[in-house]
Amino acid sequence: MAKQTVAEQYVDLLARAGVRHVFGVVGDSLNPVVDAIRRSGAVDWVQVRHEEAAAFAAGAEAQLTGRLAACAGSCGPGNLHLINGLFDAHRSMAPVIALASHIPSDRIGTGYFQETHPDRLFQECSHYCELVSTPEQMPRVVQTAIRHAVGRRGVSVVTLPGDVAGRPAPRGAVEPAMVSGPPTIRPGDDEIDRLVALVDAADKVTVFCGRGVAGAHAEVMAFADKVKAPVGHALRGKEHIQYDNPFDVGMSGLLGYGAAYEAMHECDLLILLGTDFPYSEFLPHNVRIAQVDVQPDRLGRRTQLDLAVWGDARETLRCVTPRVRAKTSRAFLDLMLDKHLEALERVVGAYTRNVEGHVPIHPEYVTSILDEEAADDAVFTVDTGMCNVWAARYLTPNGRRRVVGSFVHGSMANAMPQAIGAQFANRNRQVVSMSGDGGFAMLMGDFLTLVQYGLPVKVVVYNNSSLGMVDLEMMVDGLPPHGTRYPHTDYAAIATAMGARGIRVERPAEVRGALREAFAHPGPVLVDVVTDPDALSLPPRITSAQVSGFALSAGRMVLEGGVGRMVQMARSNLRNIPRP
Ligand SMILES: Cc1ncc(C[n+]2csc(CCOP(=O)(O)OP(=O)(O)O)c2C)c(N)n1
Ligand SMILES: [Mg+2]
Questions:
Q1: Which of 113, 197, 306, 529 has a Cα at 20 to 30 A from 429?
Q2: Is 439 in the pocket of ligand 1 (CB under 6 A)?
């Protein structure tokens, strides 16, 4: 067998670790690697337009498949562009290996053309970040990087100078050892005993679920049934727990709805299950709290705990449920289910009533139709901004659909690049990008990637000609919105010019037909829906200070001559502001 180069060996290692694609943009120091990929047969090079999109795509692929995904950027600015997508992947615990190719090794430290220090730059968004200085070092560094990414779930960055990548690899250097599948983390006996005792001592137990309940639906239901517990969730828990859930009381947090907040505050034991929900102000102070998490560093970092349980949600419940005493009274559960229904009828339904004739189109109406028309196993990628709110409130999870967003890092422009990764993960699955117009425009160049590869992604642009989420924030903070508006843009025309199908939707009656047409089309489609910029959605818990902030902003805007908008806003929203 001919001698391998370091680059070939790198690609070989990726293939053995399950990598199928490397998303990136070429560049001289990266050329040996891209050439090795071209010849590999096992791994494909996916040519994106912006490296940030490459990192988002790899992060989404990893989140959907559970397998290692990969991206790459050339030296200096090329790999620097990866950084925001890598932060997102890392914070979403997506196993991603990024190759940051580097300037010639003999020039490092001289202020050379395009010189940066990726091994320093990417420290904060990775578990492992190393410079490969010699061919002999590469296999061990790359395997260590893979073990970190897969085992600790997050990003590893390998910095490889182009000259090293092109050199011959030492023979026999590839060691096949790779990490195994994830372990089951069973809590200690003491913690299990104490959790059982806490549950038995409580009359009213509420469970609040995060992403950590993925794969534990049956166990959560069995536990809730035995102790008659309402089950609420954070945004990242929604897709895993809200379906087929007779104990569901909705979502807490800034985008929340329903009775999750009440259930968490009116119980006497709250169990935080696989959630790192960051908004402590939504957590109660005068109830007992037990937290269960696979990551011990998360236990107690948001609120004071009565019990910290280091274990995974599924295994913990498997140990605890058979041992707790069954509760006989459903009084608390039924009360919370009632409150939940009432809250849903009052708030969530409000926007979708009488909106069939409303122009500009109400975004919640769009999402409710999208929810009806999308496939049962669709993947939705959701832009940071108001799309998060619409997705949280109108997409119906069923255990087969998936929702990917930038839910921890909170970056804009995530959805369309994540849709690229999702569609590469499975070409036959329906992938829908719910994009804000601001988010879409930010990485719009990568719409060309959809066209180039014929990916059948459906991009729904919520075109409100504004940075709507920030409009809302400014309003709630008592500031007159500024720097949040865009001139009207016809994204459907842009999509058509880019070689895809573009469908412009300006009237509510056209929404369903446009989505059906998009889903029936075998290639990429952009559905440009002109939506109402004043479709504010306020969290169910809004403080009086926040409301007076809203009033103050309204006052200022009236003074500045924005009466028309205030009137519109009052019509479409004020009925939804919960009483402080
Ligand atoms: C990269 C980045 N820049 C800025 C922000 C702050 N930010 C959060 S949401 C948002 C507005 C998003 O606007 P758009 O995509 O049009 O969605 P809309 O809220 O209007 O639906 C901004 C500017 C961010 N989260 N990420
Ligand atoms: Mg917008």
A1: 529
A2: yes
Q: Say how many C-beta atoms besides its own lie within 10 A of residue 330's C-beta.
A: 10
Looking at residue 535, what is its pLDDT?
76
Q: pLDDT band for 576, please (50, 70, 90 cuts).
A: very low
Whether 89 contacts 55, CB under 8 Å: yes
Of 388, 469, 530, best ligand 1 pocket probe by most atoms within 8 Å of the beta carbon: 469
Query: How many whole angstroms from 467 Cα to the centroid of ligand 1?
Result: 6
Specify the residue with its C-alpha closest to ligand 1, atom 18. 468
Residue with the smallest CA separation from ligand 1 atom 8 is 385
Find the 464 Cα to ligand 2 centroid distance in Å: 5
Tell me, in angstroms, the distance from the centre of ligand 2 to residue 370's CA: 18
Nearest ligand to residue 410 Cα? 1
Cβ–ligand 1 contact at 388 (below 6 Å): no
Instruction: Please spell the DSSP secondary structure of 35-50, one letter per residue.
Output: HHHHHHSSSEEEE-SS
Beta partners for residue 529, in sequence order: 462, 505
Categorize the per-residue pLDDT at 422 as very low, low, confident or very high, splitting at 50, 70 and 90. very high
The DSSP line for 178-219 is: ---SPPP-PPPHHHHHHHHHHHHH-SSEEEEE-GGGTT-HHH
* Ligand 1 proximity of 386 Cβ (cutoff 6 Å): yes
Residue whose Cα lies nearest atom 3 of ligand 1: it is: 412
Q: Is residue 299 left, alpha or beta, with left meaning phi > 0 and alpha meaning psi from -120 to 50?
A: beta
Stated pTM of the model: 0.93
Looking at the chain, the number of H-run helices and the number of E-run strands are 24, 19
- Closest residue CA from atom 25 of ligand 1: 411
- Tens digits of residue pLDDT in 31-77: 999 999 999 999 999 999 999 999 999 999 999 999 999 999 999 99
Q: What is the 3-state secondary structure (H, E, C) of 500-542?
A: CEEEEECCHHHHHHHHHHHHHCCCCEEEEEEECCCCCCCCCCC
